[in-house]
Queue: 2 jobs
Job 1
Amino acid sequence: MKALICNEPGRLSLVSRPEPVPAPNEVLVRIRHVGICGTDFHIFAGKHPFLEYPRVMGHELSGTVEQAPEGSRLRQGEPVYIVPYLSCGTCQACSKGLTNACRNIRVLGVHCDGGMAEYLCVPEQNVVPTGGIALEDAAMIEFLAIGAHGVKRGNIGAKDRVLVTGSGPIGMSAIIFAKARGAHVTVMDTRQDRLTFAVERLGADTILIANDQAEAEAERQTGGDWYDVVIDATGNAIPMQRGFNFLNHGARYVLLSVVRQDITFSDPEFHKREITLFASRNAQPDDFAEVVRQMEAGKVPTRALNTHHGRLEDGVSLFSEWSRPETGVIKAILDV
């Protein structure tokens, strides 16, 4: 089979590998579409801290069942999406249903080879029928589930005034699911094109330019009440720390971003406002199901999000092109 492998930072190659043979509890999936994530670009650039090369990337995956275990609920040829988080099922977190925070978690395309290949063997529990969702849309379910999980962590409701900082794909997913819960959503970023997209295509209510005047403008827009929930999706320690400035008394702060640096904040302000701080990691099965529900309800503008397409065979050249900001990629998908 063909596979796109990252041999070392900055070097991809299309290789031929033996087709994998599934274990008794695994499904052999014929991969059809692979969404390209910021994690993949970090691997390509050599910036991922938990990775060994060479690595077949790819964790935003959809395909069809090629072979299923005897007695499986899945049938050959069935369209499916893949939950890429391989949890152990035995640690304390897993025993509580927190499979996204498994102590021994392995993520496809990061800790083990992923789906930038024609075939992939996956545990049956991680393979889910797409229902009525188009296969190319199903390749976007995973990144959307990240935002859905963060919105759930923040317990966002219709009465909440929400600020999403960072309007890349993960920030966009948070906007979509906060709006699906009826919240008033403001988006802050440095890029006017992304802010315009958030309003015109995702339904965001207001915007903030992330400049020196952002706090003053936020205070003006909210009448001094600030925000009930702030969701950070910047991936940068400086704006993550700045996000504390925008929180109302009794507010919740959800960190979708993860960085290697320490994050600091004013303890007196934290206690005075009785802020609740949430980490948000990966997603859980009900988050994936929520994405599918909202897709079926027409609340996810998949055609607008899916901006770039290419063939797996052209991935070597496309990766370098798509990694440049001027390309205007929101979500790029490789077709297998």
Job 2
Amino acid sequence: MPVRTSIAIVAGALVTGALAIAGTSMAAGELQAELAEQAAQAIEEANGGGVTARFVSPSGWPSRHPVLEGGEGLDESTRTRIARAVAAVPGVGGIRWADGEARAHSGGPEYTPTHCQDDVDALLRARTIRFEESRSTIDSASQELLDEVATALRPCLGSIIAITGHTDSSGPEPGNLALSMERAEAVRQALIARGIPGDGLRTQGVGSSEPVEGLAPSDPANRRIEFSVVATQPVSISPIDLPGAR
């Protein structure tokens, strides 16, 4: 195959990948804006002046799980009415107040997924999910580590788990971006094969744009996969927090 043809094919693939990523972000942003608009109307109808619904995850991603802010001076029955009104908006997931605890109306046990994040971070603190050089194929030596990651994530099924791929700065950034996304997707598929539901897994690739703090962008240690448990909606409990415990 002529060199120019090969370059054109690679360039086309990179552009297609970039457009796909951009399209996903735009779709999520549009949904976020639509939910925020409908939630604002629901809050107004519930006489929730001063309350706003923020549809952003702890990692800054668009989310359908809003945090209700403001309304600290409202009585508890009003806060409950506002939360129920927002929960009734089609597409809205679990709700919590920014100044309250997350407790279920059903009386079930409290669900605290933060230990999953801690467990995965501990696993990846000393070891790294490795790939074949310049490829998205996971190195055979990392299969056991992926088994352990899947085990650590399993108690948090029902959460939205973000998988982020990173590279160092060697090579052109368009290629780094595409490779980091491909590697994140490879990890997603590996976790699905280990029994983690795919509908709760989200992937993104950021190339070399977010090096490890204290490391030069060219340091190979920047080649890594990171996980974030960004939202939770357990099936067995209500999506509305009980106001209180502020």
